[in-house]
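Is this the right way to post structure tokens for a design question? Let me know if I should format differently. Anyway, here goes:
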């Protein structure tokens, strides 16, 4: 299976534009090759219809975004290596959760305006600080966690 793994990371100040990342613990080619080789084939269906963007260690373990209209799931490299050491336990639940956010975004129920720091859920706006303070009790997170629980 060909993972459409991006060689960029998300920078909130750039909105949905990808930006190059140059870090000492993040080697795009090495990490992409490792991920392709390490992920067991039974997990391949989790990655259908999405692009995968590997993030440098220290960011959120996972996230979802429409990047230039393309459904994209962001995964932290160090977190992936931890999951691999545990037999990939939990990866499926996380992918269900993040793919549900992609559905919310594609349906237009969730909108994210990174330059303005505004998240809009079904017409109601939340500031980035409200998102930080209220996670995981935000309505779109509660819905995604419910979907995740149905999968388990």
């Amino acid at each position: 299976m060909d993972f459409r793994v991006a060689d960029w990371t998300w920078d909130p100040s750039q909105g949905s534009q990808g930006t190059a990342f140059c870090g000492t613990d993040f080697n795009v080619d090495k990490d992409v090759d490792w991920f392709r080789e390490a992920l067991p084939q039974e997990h391949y269906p989790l990655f259908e219809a999405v692009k995968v963007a590997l993030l440098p260690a220290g960011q959120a373990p996972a996230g979802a975004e429409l990047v230039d209209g393309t459904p994209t799931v962001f995964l932290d490299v160090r977190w992936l290596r931890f999951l691999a050491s545990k037999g990939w336990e939990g990866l499926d639940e996380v992918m269900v959760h993040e793919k549900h956010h992609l559905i919310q975004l594609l349906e237009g129920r969730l909108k994210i305006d990174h330059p303005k720091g505004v998240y809009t859920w079904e017409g109601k706006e939340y500031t980035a600080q409200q998102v930080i303070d209220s996670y995981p009790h935000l309505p779109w997170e509660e819905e995604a966690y419910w979907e995740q629980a149905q999968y388990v």
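Format looks fine. Someone answered above. Worth noting: Helices lie at 28-38, 77-85, 91-107, 128-134, 139-151. The first strand starts at residue 5 and ends at 6.
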